[in-house]
Amino acid sequence: MFIIEMSEYESDFITKSTKTTGASLIRTFDVNHEMSLFAYYYEDYIHLKLRRYKDQETTMDDWLSLKAVGLLYPDINLADVSEIYIDQEENQLHVQIPNYTHKRNDYK
């Protein structure tokens, strides 16, 4: 499986979506030229949206294949899932994982 980060090439989409979703950061990926993956960064979590191209059905098997990768550098831990569901109407699989990157160490 290969995953290509496409964020640099989709800057217009990212700028618009950051404003409309309230996410602090959005990253986009191409997965095997078969699926798109969007990562929306919020304060406490990262919301992932996985969708197959060409109107093919997105399934839990797609997630299991992606999850086997383990980590998308530098901060998306695919094994640490707090919520997962499929939106059949939109043909998207949604996954929520903790966002540990923006946590501060408040020890004095």
Shape: globular
Give the number of helices.
2
* CA-CA gap between termini: 44 Å
Number of strands: 8
Query: Percent range for helical residues?
Result: 10-25%
Element order: H for helix, E for strand = EHEEEHEEEE
Instruction: Catalogue the unreliable spans.
Output: none
Q: Mean of residue pLDDT?
A: 90
Largest sheet: 6 strands, antiparallel
- The structural class is alpha+beta
Query: Which percent band covers the strand fraction?
Result: 35-45%
Please state the CA-atom Rg, rounded to the nearest Å.
14 Å
Order of strands side by side in the largest beta sheet? 1-2-3-4-8-7
Structural features, described:
- The protein has 108 residues and is of the alpha+beta class.
- Helices cover 18% and strands 38% of the residues.
- The chain has helices at residues 11-21, 60-67, and strands at 3-5, 25-31, 35-41, 45-52, 71-72, 76-77, 83-87, 92-98.
- The strands form 2 sheets. Strands 1-2-3-4-8-7 form a 6-stranded antiparallel β-sheet. The protein has a two-stranded antiparallel ribbon with strand order 5-6.
- A hairpin with a 4-residue loop joins strand 7 (83-87) and strand 8 (92-98).
- The longest helix is centred in the first third of the chain and has 11 residues, at 11-21.
- It is globular and about 30 Å long.
